[in-house]
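#onboarding

Welcome to the new folks! Below is a worked example of what a typical request in this channel looks like: someone posts a single protein sequence, and someone else replies with the predicted structure as tokens. Don't worry about understanding the tokens yet, we'll cover that in week two.

Example request:
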Amino acid sequence: MALDGIVVKNIIKELNTAILNGKVDKIYQPEKDEIIINVYNKGKTYKLLISANSSNPRIHLTSHSKDNPSSPPMFCMLLRKHLSGGVVLNVEQYGLDRIIFIDISSLDELGNMTTKRLVVEIMGKYSNIILIDKESSKIIDSIKRVTSEMSRIREVLPGTIYSLPQQGDKIDPLLINKTEFYDL
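Example response:
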């Protein structure tokens, strides 16, 4: 099944029902481009699988377990540092695109409440999972770093400001009226 904007919209609805206001319990990275976040909410633990795999990018709840490496990768440790113990504040989709924002509020090293945003871009070989500081929009890190040599359009590196991928001339069918829709 193709993971298009309409399918993502329904996934967001399911995630908001299950994990909204839940507590981030554990974070694992069983594959180099895949993370699993355990979220405890309403007396139940949900496993949120997020994959930036170029051949099968996806985001969904799962009941399956995977073996984890003996030592966690750097991105996993970074997510644990910034998100563990945090509360899921918001799960939303950008327009009708395959971009998902998950806002998580947690304590930083100094004990101050901060909000981080996990950006999940489901775009085939360009899929990525990016952690940003919501207030400043600075990228903390990503599961796939994109340098200027890799893309002349958009860098995804720690310390840079997050920008959305190019959208082209797409029109969100949910934001236009019936006449405009038929004219197109």
